[in-house]
Predict the structure of CSK kinase.
Amino acid sequence: LQVSWYRVTCGSCETRWPDPPEKMSGMQAVWPSGTECIAKYNFHGTAEQDLPFSKGDVLTIVAVTKDPNWYKAKNKVGREGIIPANYVQKREGVKAGIKLSLMPWFHGKITREQAERLLYPPETGLFLVRESTNYPGDYTLCVSCEGKVEHYRIIYSSSKLSIDEEVYFENLMQLVEHYTTDADGLCTRLIKPKVMEGTVAAQDEFSRSGWALNMKDLKLLQIIGKGEFG
């Protein structure tokens, strides 16, 4: 990929701007610290303070710079540096309010081949969700069906998620729940999640945090009332 760099001046201000493979449309809103982004292209950097990254990498915004075309960000190993705003996209919609690490069917950034190995031996309805390697920011639903694995791209559009661009969901949990009850165009409905090794179940997480009570620890002392409540 050949990247053209532009030096733009406006009065006494001057900035550098890498030309992306695809032109941006419209003005981009400012992202606050903590915003997660997905790299749309490879970026090697040209200055010492730049943070190089590869297409598909997840980056976290650390701070807004004086130049709105650039952000200070960090990668997954904690290295910080400056990144061009037009080389990344906000990772919204794909997370949408749920902690994916608690979802047993979510396997993160794995390849198509790795997913197919995980779904072997074949078992119709066995499924997992992974990050898309071909479309950074999107996800892929992988489903075992009649001896082979089907891969369905989960598209992020208009702040929602969809497979067929007809039915839309707020987050991945809603999408998985929907296709668990109805195939709705898939080769089969989702029957059994392929659990990722080391996944922390939501119930276990709540218990460790002190938010979930063990029913064995409860003791009935006195009935203080009865009736209909609603």
Q: What stands out?
A: The CA atoms of residues 222 and 228 lie 18 Å apart. The chain has three helices and twelve strands. The longest strand covers residues 148-157.
